[in-house]
Design brief:
Layout: E1 2-3, E2 6-8, E3 11-13, E4 20-25, E5 30-36, H1 40-58, H2 62-78, H3 80-91, H4 95-112, H5 115-118, E6 122-128, E7 131-139, E8 142-146, H6 154-165, E9 169-173, H7 180-191, E10 199-201, H8 206-214, E11 218-224, H9 227-239, E12 243-247, E13 252-256, H10 262-274, E14 284-289, H11 292-307, H12 328-343, E15 347-350, E16 369-372, H13 379-382, E17 389-392, H14 398-407, E18 410-411, E19 413-417, H15 421-430, E20 435-438, E21 454-455, E22 458-459, H16 466-472, E23 474-482
Parallel strand pairs: 1-5, 8-9, 8-11, 9-10, 11-12, 13-14, 13-19, 14-17, 16-17, 19-20
Antiparallel strand pairs: 2-3, 4-5, 6-7, 7-23, 12-22, 15-16, 18-21
Helix pairs in contact: 1-8, 2-4, 2-7, 3-4, 4-6, 10-11
The structure holds nicotinamide-adenine-dinucleotide.
Nicotinamide-adenine-dinucleotide binds next to α8.
Length: about 500
């Protein structure tokens, strides 16, 4: 059984706690490796190394730091298949999806190549008599990040690339479900020229997270994961005086207006609802057709498309639509929620409960499910299922549809499908949700915009990537300088020759 490691001080190091968590191959259900779970002391060792290394990195000029990012992009492209293969084997997502995971992280690294421009300060000449004023964006010091299982390459890169480009050291605590790719990324960063100790990976669970939240040297904590943990980390991190940003769970609604292109809407729901087995924070989990006729037409279009979905292991090739979910517990939770939907009166139009794949009977596969006539009081509507389960809530009017999305406690993403510019504009303006798609089901902003939800999907002020990341990972210092005038009467400077 492979024993995985931390990445501390530029080395793969074994865990010393004696505690491990199982890393599965979700397609077969077998345990493929053991992930060490760090103690607070192991975490503190990484902090001491980062603290020692960071000042030199901060004083490395931003163009040189950007060159490391540029080289890292080349190495990511060189090793794309290797990274995606490892990622798929631990996460279960299809090979093209795994490459997409690396690619969306890589795009943020590309954005960070612009660090010299993004880190430029501001200057006011003659703010007063003989007074100039300027502001600098300085790194925070040692920063930490905690990431979820569903994007084990992309989300770590969304955090460490801007943090490091800004001159910080970064300690990552990745998900213990798929911990190998983050180590590979840290090694590639060093191959790209990053000094040892600037990017470290400490594997672990709550013990390592609490060590990060309580360590006085850690200046900032970034978190992506479920809402209850996001709330906990935000509270504890802030009360310890750290800068914290936490991105939580989601329940993304897609409103389908009567004038929408129904084939386009159905295709969009298939990709956004079932892609990656629904394990995306931007997955659409609620379809809201407006009007009974729209709902009937939509369901009619969805059912044959869902029945055609191919579920299988990533090794089966490119025509697999989605793979297994990450663990047996995740599968049980999803099937438990499906049962609650049936018990609470929703209509199960496509039933994936008996799904089984020959040769992979112990894998964590979940067949696709479609519910109709879901109501807002049901658990399948209120809770994030994080599986291949799409719920349909029939709305009588546009106002009822927008009201549903607005009243839900989550506010990560949403979409409207319509040909009506007025409706789309009203929806985009009024909706209290962070990322909005108009005829786009998964409106993930590109690297040079920022990513973040509202309501219980986000705790903090600044979003991920884009210009916000450069604000989150720096602090502003403003200098007001007055030099006594050296000009003597007659217009000559009063220079003293050097001895
Ligand atoms: P999770 O909350 O279980 O775990 C996330 C991280 O927190 C992991 O590193 C984990 O080790 C750690 N953690 C877990 N329990 C902890 C505890 N009690 N104390 C301290 N740390 C703990 O989430 P997950 O299952 O890995 O990921 C899925 C969730 O992430 C979904 O809710 C999804 O919507 C969300 N997500 C959100 C975004 C976003 O940008 N908003 C992006 C991706 C995923």
């Amino acid at each position: 059984m492979e024993e995985l490691t931390h990445y501390i001080g530029g080395e793969r190091v074994k865990g010393t706690s004696g505690r491990f968590s199982d890393v599965f191959n979700p397609a077969t259900g077998e345990v493929q490796a053991k992930c060490p779970l760090a103690t607070a002391d192991e975490f503190a060792k990484a902090v001491a190394i980062a603290e020692e290394a960071q000042p030199d990195w901060a004083s490395t000029n931003p163009q040189r730091r950007a060159r490391v990012m540029m080289q890292f992009v080349h190495l990511l492209n060189r090793d794309m298949d290797k990274l995606a293969e490892k990622l798929s084997s631990e996460h279960g997502k299809t090979f093209p999806d795994a490459k997409g995971d690396v690619q969306r992280g890589l795009e943020v690294v590309e954005y960070c190549i612009g660090a010299p421009e993004l880190l430029k300060g501001e200057y006011t000449d003659s703010a007063g008599p003989g007074i100039d004023m300027y502001s600098m964006k300085q790194p925070l010091g040692v920063c930490g990040g905690i990431t979820p299982f569903n994007f084990p390459a992309m989300i770590p890169m969304w955090m460490f690339a801007p943090a490091i480009a800004c001159g910080n050291a970064f300690i990552l605590k990745p998900s213990e479900r798929d911990p190998s790719v983050p180590i590979m990324l840290a090694e590639l960063m060093e191959e790209a020229g990053l000094p040892k100790g600037i990017l470290q990976v400490v594997q672990g669970d709550k013990e390592a997270v609490d060590a990060m939240l309580d360590h006085p040297v850690i200046q900032s904590v970034g978190f992506v994961g479920s809402t209850p943990i996001a709330e906990y980390i935000y509270g504890r991190g802030c009360s310890n005086g750290k800068r914290v940003q936490c991105f939580g769970g989601a329940k993304n609604h897609m409103i389908v207006m009567p004038d929408a292109d129904m084939d386009q809407a159905a295709d969009a729901l298939i990709g956004a609802g079932y892609g990656a087995a629904g394990e995306r924070c931007m997955a659409i989990s609620v379809a809201v057709p407006v009007g009974e006729e729209t709902a009937d037409r939509l369901i009619e279009k969805l059912v044959p498309r869902i029945e055609k979905l191919k579920v299988g292991p990533y090794t089966a090739g490119d025509d697999v639509d989605y793979g297994p979910v990450v663990t047996k517990e995740a599968k049980e939770k999803i099937l438990g929620l499906v049962q609650s939907g049936i018990d609470q009166g929703a209509e199960l139009v496509v039933d994936g409960r008996d799904f089984s794949l020959q040769g992979y009977e112990d894998g964590f596969f979940v067949g696709p499910h479609l519910f109709d006539k879901v109501t807002p009081d049901m658990d399948i509507y209120r809770q994030e299922i994080f599986g291949p389960v799409l719920s349909t809530v029939r709305a009588k009017s546009y106002e009822e549809a927008i009201g549903l999305a607005m009243d839900h406690e989550m506010g990560n993403g949403t979409a409207i499908f319509t040909r009506d510019g007025d409706a789309a504009r009203d929806f985009s303006n009024r909706i209290n949700i962070g990322m909005v798609g108009v005829n786009v089901p998964i409106p993930v902003p590109l690297a040079y915009h920022t990513f973040g939800g509202w309501k219980k999907s986000m705790f903090g002020d600044l979003n991920q990537h884009g210009p916000d990341a450069f604000k989150f990972y720096t602090r502003t210092k403003t200098v007001t300088a007055r030099w006594p005038s050296g000009i003597k009467e007659g217009g000559e400077f009063n220079f003293k020759p050097m001895e």
